[in-house]
Design brief:
Helix content: 10-25%
CATH class: Alpha Beta
Low-confidence stretches: 1-5
Number of helices: 3
Largest sheet: 5 strands, mixed
CATH superfamily: Phosphatidylinositol 3-kinase Catalytic Subunit, Chain A, domain 1
Radius of gyration: 14 Å
Structural class: alpha+beta
Mean pLDDT: 91
Number of domains: 1
CATH architecture: Roll
């Protein structure tokens, strides 16, 4: 792959937990972390940042191609391919 192709960002798609709404992200930097992608998508997708009790909500990315949760510390270029689709899901911890 050429160095120019590696420097270009990725075009990605994201779905909410219902799977009904689909959003596109253009030219997202390959060197950004997955957690940065999720933080960027939360307001774009209109996701709530707090639960009904006012506690902060955490979200995670799920790769629809690989069928696995993505680590927030991985880079977008490591974890995703151009045109990939992720789901942005609430990170629910059992209490």
């Amino acid at each position: 792959m050429s160095s120019q192709a590696m420097s270009n960002g990725l075009d990605l798609y994201a779905r909410d937990a219902s799977g009904q709404r689909r959003f596109s992200v253009s030219n997202f930097p390959r060197t950004a972390r997955i957690r940065d992608l999720v933080k960027t998508l939360i307001p774009q997708m209109g996701l709530s940042s707090n639960d009904s009790a006012g506690r902060p909500l955490a979200y995670q990315a799920f790769s629809r191609r690989e069928h696995c949760h993505l680590r927030g510390s991985d880079t977008v270029g490591q974890a995703l391919l151009d045109g990939d689709e992720i789901s942005v899901l609430p990170d629910i911890q059992a209490g």
